[in-house]
Amino acid sequence: MIMIQHLSDLSAALRRQPARQRVAVICGRDAATLEAAGRALDEGTAEVVFVGDGEAVRRAAPGLPARGARFVDAATPAEAAARAVALVREGRADVLMKGLVGSDVVLRAVLDKQAGLLAPGRVLTHLAAAQLPAYGKLLFFTDAAVIPYPTQEQREAQVGYVVDACRRFGVEQPRVALVHCSEKASDKFPHVAGYAAIKAAAAGGRWGNALVDGPLDVRTACDAGALAVKGIESPLGGRADALVLPDIEAGNVFYKTITLFARARTAAVVQGATRPVVLTSRGDDATCKYDSLCMALLLAAGATRPDENP
Amino acid sequence: MIMIQHLSDLSAALRRQPARQRVAVICGRDAATLEAAGRALDEGTAEVVFVGDGEAVRRAAPGLPARGARFVDAATPAEAAARAVALVREGRADVLMKGLVGSDVVLRAVLDKQAGLLAPGRVLTHLAAAQLPAYGKLLFFTDAAVIPYPTQEQREAQVGYVVDACRRFGVEQPRVALVHCSEKASDKFPHVAGYAAIKAAAAGGRWGNALVDGPLDVRTACDAGALAVKGIESPLGGRADALVLPDIEAGNVFYKTITLFARARTAAVVQGATRPVVLTSRGDDATCKYDSLCMALLLAAGATRPDENP
């Protein structure tokens, strides 16, 4: 597998996949979503079905039907979300994407116990990839938006998802840092006590060929020089592929800080449902939405449906 | 008062002060500390006394006595820390600076109930100033290193310290953001419930002419465009002078991320003792140590000693 070092390589990577994935876009009438989904259509990286707001979509982008887009009607945003989720359950869509609709509406449909997309015991979490001018490769991170304070079980699920994502992007041996404000565990931070068990599980092969280390701070995770100055040995060697941030406050600060101050380009998905969900926010531009859609399509292409017999 | 927009303006600001402040450097024989303290001596921005490691200091920088440095002997690092603290208590030093000695050793001397520098009921907290190429002014933030999960009382103290610091840097009406991963309070985050009381206290004049708002995320605190997209009204207008981060995990992620990925230049002090303490770490370079010393000297010049009669 070819390694994806820049988010702009995603499009080519998708075209190398054996089959095109299909995205169900919920209320996708806003300009950025239309541009992102339209680009995927035109580049042949996805099949697109717009669920809900069909008239508004066609008015905003009259050429879409001729470009191959399909449409499913819905009377309300909630109905649109439910119909899009149903398309995924029926095996007729592979990725869910949010348009001009509240995240709560989408998540309610995804989390619906009867008709939703969350298998029992699965953990829904936010996973992003950042392209940072000051870092030599993509840096994945979790969770900036969904789980407030991960339990040990949730953190283990996060490690699993980031390792999977790194692999899908061509990283053979993902290096995952469990982040903390210090390299030492202490009684003041109960969540850090669980990092040792995660490292042990990783060493035991739970996530395949992956290096997991922590506690490390962002600098000792991503800067070999900082490691050396502190005299710390880490199998990651200051070259993390992924940061598992301690909680949503730290995750969100990381996300907002790199996009605002470090000229980061980011893509993000919500993992844990049977298929990836693109839940970008109103403020995200078309590039971010396109990159996020591509990331979701790539992850979907590598996923096994829990409801499928292998 | 002239506004200090860059950390490199600190030196000139200190020379405009009516009196030179005096720094007691604990075990300052490492190259970066020697360079920082020596520069303050040579620029006339501080008087410097090296406490402990005198022989090693004079060997590493033989010219120091001729440049005006003074020396106090001590047999051990702990004794050096205690003697430096005593100099401050006796009114013979205004700032404490850590050299090649553990932070725990310095803090133990500062926190000593009998002979230390912490008045009863005072809160010790970390306060830093960042110069970010992507932001038009200095951005203060707290706390990246000392208080794990601030209580309401500690957070109020943090607001007071950052407002004070902004004023000392010439910001007439400091804009302080209480940071959270969302602009909405929720039951899942008990600490955010207290933000409203802090805003009310600020509006009531508790910290003088200052604007305090939150919850805001890093982007809505520091980017007017992000505010507009989300349709949020904030008196800060997306131009925060200071971020009060929710806890040490978020604070440390911010600190490490801006220095590693956003080319930030930073200065940091520990506030809350009777005088500022410079507690930079081994990995910090001479510029960071010098900037931090200058910041401490400026804050000390504006402080009233709790043990002095006004």
What's the architecture of the largest domain in chain A in CATH terms?
3-Layer(aba) Sandwich
Structural class of the secondary elements of chain A? alpha/beta
Q: Number of DSSP helices of chain A? A: 12
User: How do the strands line up in the largest sheet of chain A?
Assistant: 8-7-9-6-5-10
CATH C-level of the largest domain in chain A: Alpha Beta
Q: If you compute it from the alpha carbons, what radius of gyration of chain A comes out, rounded to the nearest whole angstrom?
A: 19 Å
Do you know the CATH topology of the largest domain in chain A?
Rossmann fold
Domain module count of chain A: 2
Q: How far do the termini of chain A sit from each other?
A: 22 Å
In N-to-C order, the SSE pattern of chain A is HEHEHEHEHEEHEHHEHHEHEEH
* Main sheet: strands, sense, barrel of chain A: 6 strands, mixed
Name the quaternary structure.
Answer: homodimer
Largest interface: A-B, 41 and 41 residues
Average of the residue pLDDT scores of chain A: 94
Q: How much of the residues of chain A is beta strand, in percent? A: 15-25%
Quantity of strands of chain A, as a count: 11
Low-confidence stretches of chain A: 304-310
